[in-house]
Each structure stands twice: as C-alpha cells, then as structure tokens.
Amino acid sequence: MIEDQVIQFSDFKEFSHDIIRDDNVYLGISELSLATGVPQNQLRYWNERGYIHSVADMKLKFCFNTILLVRGIKLFQKRGFTLSAAVKKASVYTDMTAKIKKMLSTRITTITNNDDTTEIDLGVFDPQPDKRLVVKIKDDSTLFELK
Q: Where in the numbering of this chain does the HTH merR-type domain appear (predicted)?
C-alpha cells in the first residue's frame, strides 16, 4: 500500500469541515431556489410562515443545510402531504442526516484507497473491542467487515 493512499480522518474531517461548515456557507434565496427547484416566492412564503428559517441578522440568507430541508419538503408535498406535514417529515430526515454526520465524524479513523476499493475504518467494534469495523466500498457494493 502506498503511504499517500491512506487518509487520516482528522485531515479529511478538517478538509470537509472547512468546505461545508454549516456556519459559513450561506445561500441567497435565488441560489436556494436553483439548488432545490422551489420558486423564490414559495421559499419566501415558507420563511415568513416559519417553515424554513433564514440566518439571523441576514435577511433571506439560508444555511447550507436548508437545501436538505427544502428538498425534503418538496418531496413529501409531491407525495401528497400538506405543507405542515411535509415540513415535519422533512425535519425528521434532516435530523437523521445530522446524526449520521455526527456518527461519521466521531467514528471514522482512516480512509484507504486501494486500486478499485475504498476502505473506511470505523474504529473499534464495541461488542468485540479486539476487532475493528471496516466498510469496503467497491463499485456499487458496500460491505462491512470485522478485522
């Protein structure tokens, strides 16, 4: 294995954190509309009614994660849910996404690229502390392995 193919997650975490930090990536309403396919007037209505929230002290500027919420609302409305119900369901999904992000940021120790396979070491496997849980990603398949 070539040394530069092993990525210490602390480096990757810092890299990704700086690129997509929730507190420094803001979208105007036109960018949010383009990113989600929801018309600006509808986004303004949702913001006025409290379904989505613009950043305090920044009129009609939205944090990056609002894209997920708006896309979720749009998805559930297409499935026939009322706006209020769609917001509730989309909020559950965005909360889950935040928890997955937290799990990944606390568990990943290294990421290794080997030819056509990427291995993500999730650290110690809690029920068996002498083992590590590794995710192997190759093409369209994802497998878990204890090492």
A: 29-88
